[in-house]
Design a protein that fits this description.
By secondary structure, the protein is α/β, with parallel strands linked by helices. It contains 14 helices and twelve strands. The strands form two sheets. Strands 1, 2, 3, 4, 5, 6 and 12 form a seven-stranded mixed sheet that branches. A five-stranded mixed sheet has the order 9-8-7-10-11, with helices on both faces. Helix 11 packs across helix 12. The chain binds adenosine-5'-diphosphate and magnesium ion. Magnesium ion binds next to loops. The site of adenosine-5'-diphosphate (ADP) has 19 residues, from helix 6.
């Protein structure tokens, strides 16, 4: 009988919660679901990513609301797809990150696993990041081990690029599991979504069409790239604490006093194009500074559907003949890669196998990640 694990992921974009029922060796996807947030819950989760009043009570309520939503959605996933519950060994639930402070050794994901177990009557593995942090790591990114297990190639260098709210890369040198590394390169959709929403009312810039009208603004780009995160050496990870609309507004207002400021350039679509270039340049730098000379880039996460961004990336990586495709070319839709990674992480915990890569997170060694809430 095939053992199924359910992965649950909600990333920094906060566009919704993704669910995947998967089994491994070989990978098989049995069912998928994306559940959008109730708008009030989304606003509250978003607000909780930055310091504000009465955070503990508010966090407690959001913890319960999110967990109930996740538990009920899992029951729906099982019912709608006629999954055999006796085959489902565990749920791997990432939870919503509301604070990530590797510099202080803490990271916080909410969505109470006790409630999820109570609703589903299935064991939940959660709290995947803190053991790595306790061992001195960033607690992020955790997906490179999964990318390596599934996508490393014996003779071709590969890069898996996840474009969620944040962009992260996994570098998979051909045939060399020990050589794998990866890190967050900076913001991807966080800033582009927020800017697009403000000016167009749309939650995101479909296919990058709006950015495509604009031209990146050199002097603003330089200013944004001066953020400390870009000059840090890996291991490094980031989130909404570093990159958010308030930060962007400050940068823009400083830029407007810059001697290089040119009013004619100051249009919303030029700024959107600048944010896109901020994303693609950091990715290019990560790849060109790596020991990998050429190979294949596979893009996953919702940003994989941003065709203009992918075009830009192809153009930026043209020099060394890197190919750029989405993860669909590897047989897994960009939408489901991250949630599948959390099903995989649940499987690793279930087998009591380590799941962090010390070279990626900076932890002092391999660790088994997660804690279990038993039925
Ligand atoms: N057709 C599209 N065109 C451009 N961007 C898209 C498209 N579809 C999804 N996205 C982007 O992907 C984001 C969601 O990506 P996702 O991988 O779920 O991120 P996260 O892991 O942070 O939740 C959306 O917020 C949006 O910015
Ligand atoms: Mg998402």
């Amino acid at each position: 009988m095939t053992t199924i694990y359910i992965g649950v992921m909600t990333g920094t974009s906060m566009d919704g919660v993704d669910f995947v029922a998967a089994s491994f060796d070989p990978l098989q996807i049995h069912a998928t679901l994306t559940m959008p947030f109730d708008p009030d819950l989304r606003d509250e989760l978003m607000a909780l990513t930055l310091p504000s009043d009465n955070e503990i009570d508010r966090m407690g309520k959001a913890d319960v609301a999110l967990a109930s939503m996740i538990g009920n959605a899992i029951n729906q996933l099982i019912a709608e797809n006629n999954l055999d519950k006796s085959q489902i060994k565990a749920i791997g639930s990432h939870g919503q990150t509301i604070r990530h402070r590797p510099e202080h050794g803490f990271t916080l994901q909410i969505g109470d696993p006790n409630i999820i177990t109570e609703i589903t009557q299935i064991p939940v593995i959660s709290d995947f990041r803190r053991r790595d942090m306790a061992a001195g790591g960033q607690g992020a990114p955790l997906v490179p081990a999964f990318h390596q297990a599934l996508f490393q190639h014996p003779t071709i260098h590969r890069v898996i690029l996840n474009l969620g709210g944040i962009a992260n890369v996994s570098l998979l040198p051909a045939g060399n599991p020990e050589g794998v590394y990866g890190f967050d390169t900076g913001p991807a959709n966080i800033l582009m979504d927020a800017w697009c929403h403000r000016y167009t009312g749309q939650p995101y810039d479909e296919n990058g069409n709006w950015a495509a009208y604009g031209q990146p603004i050199r002097s603003l780009l330089d200013r944004l790239q001066a953020h400390d995160f870009f000059s840090k050496e890996p291991p490094k990870s980031t989130g909404r604490e570093d990159f958010n609309l308030e930060w962007l507004d400050e940068q823009i207002s400083d830029w407007r006093n810059d001697i290089e400021y040119n009013e004619l350039e100051d249009t919303p679509e030029n700024i959107q194009a600048t944010l896109m270039k901020l994303t693609t340049r950091a990715i290019k730098k990560a790849i060109y500074r790596s020991p990998l000379d050429t190979g294949e880039v596979y893009v996953c996460g919702g940003g994989a559907y941003n065709s203009h961004l992918l075009e830009q990336l192809r153009w930026r990586l043209r020099k060394h003949n890197w190919s750029v495709q989405t993860s669909s070319a590897l047989g897994l839709s960009p939408t489901w890669v991250e949630a599948t990674a959390f099903a995989w992480l649940a499987m690793r915990f279930d087998h009591q196998l380590s799941a962090n890569l010390p070279a990626v997170t900076g932890a002092s060694g391999y660790r088994i990640l997660g804690t279990i809430t038993a039925v």
